[in-house]
Amino acid sequence: MRVYILRRLLQIIPTVLGITLIVFMMMQSIPGDPVVALLGDAYTEEDAIKVREAYGLDQPVLVQYFIWLGKLVQGDWGASILTGRPVLQDVLVRLPVTLELIVLSMAVALVIAIPAAIVGALRQNTWADYTATSVAMIGVSIPEFFIGVLLLLVFSFGFSGLLPSSGWVYLPGTCPTMVCGVSLWGNLQHILMPALALGVGRAAILTRLLRASMLEVIRTEYVTTARAKGLSERPVVLKHALKNALIPTVTVMGLQVGFLIGGAIVVETLFAMPGLGTFGIDAIIARDYQQVQGFALITALAFVVINLLVDLTYTFLDPRIRYA
Amino acid sequence: MATPISGGSVREVELSSVAGVAWPAPATTSESPLAEALRRLRRSTTALVGVAIVALLMVVAVFADALAPQSPIANDQTKTFLAPSWEHPLGTDQMGRDMLSRVIHGTRISILVGVSSVVLALFVGVPFGMIAGYYGGRVDTTVMRLMDLILAFPIYLLAIILMVMFTPTAGLIGTMKVTGAIAIVRIPIYARLVRGSVLSIKEKEYVEACRALGLRAPRILLRHVLPNCLAPIIVTTTLGIATAIIVEATLSFLGLGTQPPTPSWGWDLKANVAFIQANAWLALFPGLAIFITVLGFNLFGDGLRDALDPRLK
Q1: Other CB atoms closer than 10 Å to residue B55's CB: what's the count?
Q2: Distance spanning both ends of chain A, measured CA to CA
Q3: Residue from the list A141, A149, A270 with its beta carbon closest to the beta carbon of B294
């Protein structure tokens, strides 16, 4: 197991290098000059040369990449060309917001998907199953931002503004700066709609998959044996069927991380949340190379680490799976 | 390169099982697999609903100029924020433009981008997958590592960076840029899918017989291997159009898709979000249009999958 984890951790390196290198090359080919964005229209060529030298922008692209990489190894993620702030600091400030959004949206997805899939599978071809599968089909067909808009219409602009339409209040203990709104209740009010907007689509996908897996598993001999032994339906479903049906679902949950990161960009933009998604899109549009590299790096890391965790979850769900 | 991580779209994750789809075995000796699949498709109510929605949308997209009561870009500052009425069934936006006309013309952009991006990805991804799967070895490794690299990106991140690279614009050129960005993101999906199918098909006796007869590889691939990979490709393509439409709407929502004044559902939704408190319909109608279109392709795709391989139902 330890060897397996070590090997997987080593595999992270080429993946992250590949992603960051491609993003670096792509950003360099974007039309426009970040120096112009920094200095404004009224600048002299001398100023521009100084700024280019200061940020290494006068070097060839590959050299720039390796300079960035060299600094990264020493824990220096570089500084934003536009604000001058260290990129790592910006990423760490925004990471808790996006992490909370992703974790809660996944929780929303599971809370909806598991019961819906169990009911759908156990009562196949009944109204309950048709309802679950129809709702799931609707869920996979609605983009996150439209769910977000519908939630805004109902909970922010309807019901006398039950939930805030934008902004952010931090969880106690997570405020990254000296001044920020901190409150558990306030945080819950701000995260609820974004988490629902992002989670409902995932719930629909997981419901469809889990229902299909459950249908397959409940017809297997070991489930029949469990029932024949006289076990009540609850442990048969939860311990024997669900646990095994969850294996493909967990795989898909890992694959969904990429979507959650992408969805976070959209949802954070809609709800004006100070997370990594808005940080990334703002950086890409402003052509702030250093910030974009930081965003690509944290995204790639999140991707590979979560997929590693997913692989390790298999051993819990199915003890027969052992990694040598 | 590490194991491919993702990059697949919402629906592609469900398609791992579709890779195994093959033309169904005929129920009777007299019925061809295609006829059998069509018979199953006709029996599925949900699939027929999907077909009806898709057909209707195609008609709307083709005849948008004739169906739209006004030009989608005609401003009228005296008619801003009008509620739905007989004159303007879906109301007007902040520039006094008729929302029904914008929604109708938006159909054209969505369908055009959805279909053409998937077709483009198909024409690049399928040959890559066929070559990788058939020749194997270094060719396979080189092609598939390249595909894995694209797949390792979160789909939206890659599409966003590509669109910033291409610089979003209005009109047909802008639409082509979005099409290109979405196609690039989707190429590896087809390459992976087809490679998997080719790996198993190339070991079949009839392919071996073709080789023994001295047929050249391109002919074997096009005449004998490709037709047997078509079932999963058809299913993935139909579901892929739905995903491409969502990606286009999302890019437009972020301001990186087709640019105004070209009508786009995602852009209209974004532009009108600020006004929805007083004028909810402004965001509702473009959003509903996206939902109904995606639902239509999803229902059709699901029906096709069930028809081509009922074991997956």
Answers
A1: 12
A2: 6
A3: A141
Distance (Å, rounded) from C-alpha B106 to C-alpha B92? 15
Contacts of A116 (CB under 8 A, 6+ apart): A132, A135, A136, A203, A207, A211
- Rounded to whole angstroms, the Cα distance separating A151 from B273 reads 12
Cα dist. B290→A69, B193, B248 in Å? 42, 27, 10
Torsion sign across C-alpha atoms A183, A189, A191, A192? positive
With an 8 Å Cβ cutoff, is B311 touching chain A?
Answer: no
For the segment B301-311, what is each residue's pLDDT rounded down to a tens digit?
Answer: 988 888 886 55
Q: Are B154 and A303 in contact (CB under 8 A)?
A: yes
DSSP A155: I
Q: ipTM above 0.90? A: no
Between CA B225 and CA B202 the distance in angstroms is 7
Element (H, E) at B287: helix B281-308
Nearest alpha carbon to residue B24 among B235, B165, B171, B177: B235
Q: Would you call B263 exposed, middle or buried from its count of C-beta atoms within 10 A (0-12, 13-18, 19+)?
A: buried
Q: Which residues contact A322 (CB under 8 A, 6 or more apart)?
A: A1, A315
| Minimal C-alpha gap between B21 and chain A (Å) | 16
Facing B10 at nearest CB: one of A259, A299, A300: A259
Residue located via tokens 């965003």: A295
CB contact A244 to B (< 8 Å) = no
Cβ pair A205:B242 closer than 8 A: no
Query: d(Cα A85, Cα A79) in Å, to the nearest integer?
Result: 5
Helices (H), A29-182: 34-39, 45-54, 61-73, 87-122, 127-141, 144-151
Position A301 confidence tier, pLDDT thresholds 50, 70, 90: confident
- Nearest alpha carbon to residue B278 among A266, A280, A252, A157: A157
In the predicted model, what is the mean pLDDT of residues B165-190?
Answer: 91
pLDDT tens, position by position, B23-79:
555 555 567 777 887 888 888 888 899 999 999 999 999 999 999 999 998 888 888
Helix (H, G, I), strand (E, B) or coil at B98: strand
**Angle (deg, nearest 10), helices A184-217 and A144-151:** 130
d(CA B193, CA B187): 10
